[in-house]
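Lab notes, practical 5.
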Amino acid sequence: MNDKGSAMVSVLVADDHGFIRAGVGAVLRGSRFTVVAGTASGEETLDAIATHDPGIVLLDINLPGMNGVKTLETLRARGDRRPVVVLTAEITDRQLLSVLRTGVEGILSKDGADEDLVEVLEKVADGQKAVAPAFLQRAVDLSLNPAPGGPLDRLNPRERRIARLVARGLRNRDVGNELNIGEGTVKVYLHAIYQKLGIDNRTELALLAINDPGD
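Output from the prediction step:
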């Protein structure tokens, strides 16, 4: 790996979309990087790393089951320091800070990945970091200006109201009745709330809302 530009480097591609895995293979064809395995879940990825011992792991952040963040944390907890490049369509603030703290060598946006992938892998293979300046600046801003107050501060007033109603145990239909909106609209709001807070379900939302000091 230290013989720059010549030594072949094996890559494991972890992404639950087959067309992404195939696309990565196509982009790397002819380069010094070769895909030795493709996986579709965090658990499968950890098994494949043990089996194939890849030089670099290209890891989707939003894998089903054990997501990319948990997979990376598990890998590092095992003492495995091999280079990992996170591949993401979107990454929450919490995910960004987590992967940087845990130890990631690169972060690559899926938007434009076909143009930047080989360059990112070259840097990482040669012992450099390959995190786009925009991601680093965002992390610095988050560290210098942490969200004040409670865990729901990222939400707008309507979203915070919905979160508190969920914490009271109301179903989507009841939340809609309370706010005079449709049940489908409540689902749309909840999806946006989950994205903003970096959570997956209403139980996590309820816990955050219960711990929020309010306005």
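Observations recorded by the TA: The chain has ten helices and six strands. The mean pLDDT is 88.
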